[in-house]
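Lecture notes, unit on protein representations.

Consider one protein chain, 435 amino acids long.
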Amino acid sequence: MNASTSAGLRYQSGFGNEHATEAVPGALPQGRNSPQRAPFHLYPELVSGTAFTAPRHENRRSWLYRRQPSVVSGRYQPYAQAHWTTGGDRGTALPPEPMRWGAIPFAPGVEADFVDGMHTLAANGDADAQTGIGSLMYLATRSMDKRAFVNADGELLVVPQQGRLVITTELGVLEVAPGEIAVLPRGVLFKVAVPDGPSRGYVCENYGAQFRLPELGPIGSNGLANARDFLAPVAAFEDASAPYEVVKKFGGRFWTAPMKHTPFNVVAWHGNLTPVKYDTKNFMTIGSISFDHPDPSIFTVLTSPSDTPGTANCDFVIFPPRWLVMEDTFRPPWYHRNLMSEFMGLVYGEYDAKPGGFKPGGASLHNAMVPHGPDEEAFEKASSMDLKPQKLDNTLAFMFESRYRFIPTAFALQSPALDQNYADCWAGLKDQFKA
């Protein structure tokens, strides 16, 4: 087990690796997963993120050794969370046009934690069919205290944009800052604290195959995201008997149940189903050093494959700081129509294809075969600039790219942040043909 320290917390290195960790020496059974009597009279509990018969290289599961099993809880009752919806509403009539939102604002006077402050902006697929994703934004102004959340519909990829998050999970604690991401497996309980006050960020709720590192193919054995740079927590548990509330998302609906004890009572665990964090500064960008602008797929951090090889349920793509050195090349993203649908967000800085119109905390949506590309300002600048080596710095944009069409929610369509004049950014592109 490799361990490292970050933000005062200890972590284990590796994505999809087999980890073993104990908060109390001797708490982890040796040589077997469920002995007749576990050390310290702990309860063994298995969490399976894949089917039992999944191929060994894809099988994800962890054994938890806890003070009380998770079955010890009260009865579930319906819970209201109107803005976190699941899947796309196919009854929504959506024209084939590009869409953009400014920074999604915090509602004045509204206090909400990570769960209550979650808003679905666009979604596709079906959680019960285990296809598609939701693109969401959280607007959290308070921490979750004696409250835990568990999502049975999908795993969560969290992209903070404003404020750090301290995510306490059954398997340990992660601190995640803007510029970093976290992946929280389906079915694992967690709670979120916001130490910096009002916090905003993006979330991909992945109903499909679990995120994994993309294959590298001709890139070779090095490049993009390295497995060792993903950090998993070490075992940690709360020594408290205060009552908790557990909120569960199940089949697109929300439920709440009381619990007489903390659910964060795992003293030891081992396995490869684990929350992880990743610092995007560790991403090794690949690009052209001769001519032409490569496909954005070279910036894929994680992928959720579909049943069609090479056509993802979701790709998580980032656009981090990097050098541009191509000769005789239009360097920003070219104009294009794509089979894949693209939901984009901006964590900080400026996006080179939309220098003035795309703001941190905002979002854009370009569905399948909807034309898009640089605005007029970016086109004119890129067409006439002196092509010296250029460093794009202090910038981090990202994309949730999916084979399925995104359908915006009523919240997104009615938001004052929706840019009603987005298409005008291309209106000045004139016919410059010269025979």
